[in-house]
Design goal:
By secondary structure, the protein is mainly α. The chain has one domain. It has 15 helices and no strands. Helix 11 runs parallel beside helix 14. The longest helix has 53 residues. The protein is globular, with a radius of gyration of 21 Å. The two termini are 40 Å apart.
């Protein structure tokens, strides 16, 4: 049932820095919790042994690909909803929120079917040997089936964030993260009477936790925000909503899917140097994601902020937000690079004490974080492109970064400088595309 409550654009009022802080802080915390339970997964699986840790590392590109579908649809939904809120169109906001969830259901059904049918050839292509394939299949079968609980709530949380409420999605993510961390040791190691499931337990813990986010997100949208319409729409109305969402969502999903595709190639490249190299690479990239939480939170906050203010015609607030974001990315990234340069190996030991694994992780963490400033600029710019309803520049920049720079440079680097050559390629790609992104978004938003 639709509400006649007027739609207020909350983010067009107040000083820009305070509004961004209010938006970003809950998102940073929520993403921090999600990354924490990702690290917890890696930590607990690492205690099972190098083979299990390597098997899980092979799944990262595919898991990230599933996340990109959710993220793309969420970005598209958030973008159109935020701009509709800025224009005061409540009825359209309700229609878009409802149709965004139905689009998520359809999309995830297709992805689950494709994933289950292509599991063996896909991971063989990524470089997984016969000793790892059974472990990978155990994990991914459960993960694919539980994909409903990843994609649909992410779209729902994106709709909530578009209204200017980032606290509720953060609380939902926090609760799910805590539940995941509690269930991990119980299901992986069979503690307190639970079955000993090994790698399967890590996947099942994630599915249970994500199921909670599904119920919470849909509940908030229906009971509190009253943004869901339960009557079936006309086909032309439904297709119109899907078209608006996919106008931003498809390029955003494509943009984010490029990363896992490139990482799949890089994982296969790293696999040439042995199972320990893959495991060390997996640990390092998990720590990298954890260290970028603040930039991810700020990027997530830019979407609803830019959408509402652009929809209301307040361009100067968008320009000010970009300046604040770029300066923050610089300061945060320098801090993170220093921490990981000095303590990266010490952190890696907590996941697996194998000297070869720790060495690979340490090399990565001593090189790549120095380019995080530029990666932050690209993330903030991409979020702004999408919020403006102009996603193609983000796609073009990411495509150039990954397949014009990262993949070819990594291949050359691996031939002549082994693993350090691969990691230096990441730095070069981050720096060049970060500068391009900052210049492009500055020009487009004026």
């Amino acid at each position: 049932m639709k509400s006649e409550r007027p739609m207020r654009a909350k983010l067009t009022e107040g000083t820009v820095d305070k509004v961004l802080l209010k938006l970003s802080a809950p998102m940073i915390w929520g993403i921090f919790v999600v990354m924490t339970f990702n690290l917890a997964d890696t930590f607990f699986v690492g205690q099972l042994g190098a083979q299990e840790l390597a098997a899980m590392s092979f799944t990262f590109p595919v898991v990230m690909l599933g996340g990109t579908l959710a993220l793309g649809l969420g970005v598209g939904t958030s973008s159109v909803i935020a701009r509709a809120i800025g224009q005061g169109q409540r009825e359209r906001v309700c229609r878009l929120a409802t149709d965004g969830l139905s689009l998520a259901l359809l999309s995830v059904s297709i992805l689950i079917l494709l994933g289950l049918l292509t599991m063996n050839p896909l991971f063989k292509a990524l470089g997984a040997g016969p000793e790892l394939l059974p472990l990978i299949k155990d994990y991914m079968t459960i993960w694919y089936i539980g994909l409903f609980f990843l994609v649909v709530p992410m779209v729902g949380n994106s709709a909530i964030r578009a209204t200017g409420d980032t606290l509720t999605p953060s609380l939902i993510m926090t609760t799910a993260g805590v539940l995941n961390i509690i269930l991990d040791p119980l299901l992986i190691f069979g503690l307190w009477g639970f079955p000993h499931m090994g790698l399967k337990g890590a996947a099942l813990a994630t599915v249970f936790a994500r199921g909670l986010t599904l119920m919470a997100a849909v509940g908030v949208l229906h009971f509190r925000e009253k943004l869901l319409i339960w009557q079936a729409p006309k086909l032309e109305t439904l297709l119109s909503s899907w078209k608006a969402i996919l106008h931003v969502g498809l390029p955003a999903a494509a943009t984010n899917s490029l990363g896992p595709l490139a990482n799949g190639f890089i994982t296969a490249l790293v696999a040439r140097f042995g199972i320990q190299a893959v495991a060390g690479f997996g640990v390092a990239t998990r720590l990298e994601a954890f260290s970028l939480v603040a930039l991810m939170g700020l990027s997530a906050a830019m979407g609803p902020f830019v959408g509402q203010n652009w929809g209301a015609g307040l361009k100067s607030r968008v320009h000010q937000a970009l300046k604040i974001g770029f300066v923050f990315a610089l300061l945060w990234s320098l801090f993170v690079a220093l921490v990981l340069a000095f303590w990266g190996k010490s952190l890696a030991i907590y996941f697996n004490a194998d000297p070869a694994i720790v060495s690979v992780a340490g090399i990565y963490l001593g090189i790549v974080p120095w380019s995080f400033t530029f990666e932050g600029w690209r993330m903030i710019s991409n979020a702004t492109f999408n919020a403006l309803g102009k996603p193609l520049p983000a796609t073009a920049i990411t495509l150039f970064k990954l397949f014009g720079l990262y993949v070819p440079l990594a291949w050359v680097g691996a031939q002549y400088y082994a693993l350090p050559g691969i990691f230096v390629a990441i730095v070069i790609a981050n720096v060049l595309t970060g500068i391009i992104s900052a210049l492009w978004i500055r020009r487009l938003s004026h």
